[in-house]
Design brief:
This protein has about 90 residues and is of the alpha+beta class. It has a domain of about 45 residues. The protein is built from three helices and four strands, in the order H-E-E-H-E-H-E. Strands 3-1-2-4 form a four-stranded mixed sheet. Strand 1 and strand 2 form a beta hairpin. Bound molecules: zinc ion. The site of zinc ion (ZN) has 7 residues, from helix 2.
């Protein structure tokens, strides 16, 4: 009988402890999402006079031949500068 009593007491205690710790937070923080702008696709261009293509990937073979600076611009900007899509990575 003593064992049963202590078991009941134990259950009561553990229930009490569980009751004291709410699992869910009372107020959920409002998720702050930045205003989504329609992002322009970014491309890579070689800033060389002989370069004519813009690249989808920095690891493109065509881009690795570039001995000048590599610039990260939007696709629209690359077209504006007279670049054409690379035949290897596009
Ligand atoms: Zn390429």
């Amino acid at each position: 009988m003593r064992k049963l009593l202590s078991t009941l007491l134990f259950i009561g205690l553990s229930l009490g402890i569980q009751g004291q710790t709410p699992k869910e937070p009372v107020t959920k923080p409002a998720p702050q999402q930045p205003v989504k702008k329609k992002e322009q696709p970014q491309v890579y261009i070689c800033e060389s006079r002989s370069a004519y293509a813009y690249h989808n990937s920095l690891s493109c073979h065509g881009l690795q031949r570039c001995s000048h600076e590599i610039a990260n611009v939007t696709e629209a900007k690359a077209k504006e500068l007279g670049y054409r899509p690379c035949k290897i990575c596009y």
